[in-house]
Amino acid sequence: MKILIADDSRVMRQIVIRTLRQAGYDDHDVVEAEDGADALAKVGSEQPDLVLSDWNMPNMTGLECLQALRASGSAVPFGFVTSEGSAEMREKAANAGALFLIAKPFTEHTFRENLDGVIA
Q1: Backbone Cα Rg of the chain
Q2: 52: closest CA among 12, 3, 95, 88?
Q3: N or C, where is the chain less crowded by C-beta within 10 Å?
Q4: How far, in Å, CA of 26 to CA of 92, rounded?
C-alpha cells in the first residue's frame, strides 16, 4: 500500500510517518507532499492508496485538495491529521468525503483506531 502524507511542515510529516510505524503500519510505501497543491498533483502521479493530510497548508488547504479530488472523480481514501478537531471541521471533512479526522496530539493508538480497516 502506498500512503501520501501532506503537510507543510517537514517535521510534522516525519512525526506522522513515525506514528504510522509505531502503530504497526511500517511496511507501506510513503510519499510526501508539502501542501495541498503538491498532494493533488501526487495523487495523479503516484496513485496512493490513502492520503493523510493536514488541514491548513499554503497554496491549497487539505480541504480544498479533497474537494478537488472528489470533483475530478477520484475516490482515493482520504483522512485528515490536523491540529484542530472541532465539530464544524469534522462535519466539513465528512461532507467533503473524508474517512476520518485525527486531531493532534495523537498517538499510535489513535492511528490504529482510525486506520484499521482502511490500511490492509
Answers
A1: 13
A2: 3
A3: C
A4: 30
Residue 42 and residue 117: Cα distance in Å, rounded? 23
* Residues whose CB is less than 8 angstroms from the CB of residue 81 and which lie 6 or more positions away in sequence, other chains included: 7, 16, 52, 53, 54, 102, 104, 106
pLDDT in tens, 6-27: 999 999 999 999 999 999 998 9
Contact 25, 19 (CB under 8 A): no
Residue written as grid cell 484499521:
116
> What's the predicted TM-score (pTM) here?
0.95
Contact assessment for residue 49 and residue 77, using Cβ atoms and an 8 Å cutoff: yes
Alpha helices in the chain (DSSP H): 10-22, 36-46, 62-71, 87-96, 108-115
